[in-house]
Specification:
Elements: H1 4-9, H2 16-21, H3 36-46, E1 58-63, H4 66-90, H5 98-113, E2 119-125, E3 127-128, E4 131-132, H6 134-151, E5 154-155, H7 165-171, E6 180-187
Antiparallel strand pairs: 1-2, 2-6, 3-4, 5-6
Length: about 220
């Protein structure tokens, strides 16, 4: 990035629907650093999400320090391998779908290399009546993922860190009333964005009432 002006303009020309259709999870990331201005830009996009009463409950913690990323990565890796073990076992069956096998490999790659992702972006938010305001935080997360797509960054959403959430929240200095709900590893992608495989919407769209066989 050659100047702050370049960063300010980057991604502004990506058509909205094209960005939505091509924002797939990017789990293979390069180690190259991401400019602070770009991290700020995608987080700013998150702040334009809707929230009840316009409370804007979100906080973003961008972890860039290698030692801190290694601390997070070691715990994430352990939690993910425990979580994914049944799927790994199932994938040994010759009849296991190849598309699912590819997704499994990508997820395992992220877990084993997450410490190398230059930015670990944690999304946290105030609680209300004892519950996190996920109805606001997840639209903010989607905005961040779309903004990453627009500026050329790779990103994906994971909640595996919740297996050690209290530990990581304390490590990040977050008070109990502002818990994390998601982790977004961000970096320059090894691959490219593109349209993920999706079933036609007509099979999932129902008019006026649910039908087992939509028209």
């Amino acid at each position: 990035m050659s100047s702050p002006t370049d960063v300010a303009r980057l991604g502004e020309e990506v058509p909205l629907l094209e960005g939505i259709r091509t924002t797939r999870a990017i789990r293979r990331l390069r180690k190259d650093p991401v400019p602070e201005a770009l991290v700020r830009k995608v987080c700013e996009a998150g702040t334009f999400a809707p929230s009840g009463g316009n409370r804007q409950p979100w906080h973003f913690v961008a972890v860039r320090d290698p030692e801190r990323r290694a601390w997070i990565g070691e715990r994430y890796r352990r939690a993910f391998h425990e979580y994914i073990a049944p799927a790994v076992e199932a994938s040994r069956d010759p009849g296991f779908p190849e598309a699912k096998r590819r997704n499994l490999r990508a997820a395992l790659h992220l877990a084993d290399h997450i410490h190398e992702a230059p930015v670990h972006l944690f999304v946290a938010g105030w609680t209300r009546r004892g519950r996190p305001q996920l109805q606001a935080l997840f639209p903010a997360i989607q905005n961040i993922l779309l903004a990453c797509r627009a500026v050329g960054l790779g990103a994906s959403l994971t909640t595996v860190h919740q297996a050690f959430q209290r530990e990581v929240d304390a490590y990040l200095g977050l008070p109990e009333e502002i818990p994390t709900c998601a982790l977004i590893p961000i970096g320059w992608p090894e691959g490219r964005y593109g349209r993920p495989p999706r079933e036609p919407v007509d099979g999932r769209l129902h008019w006026d009432h649910f039908s087992a066989e939509p028209e």
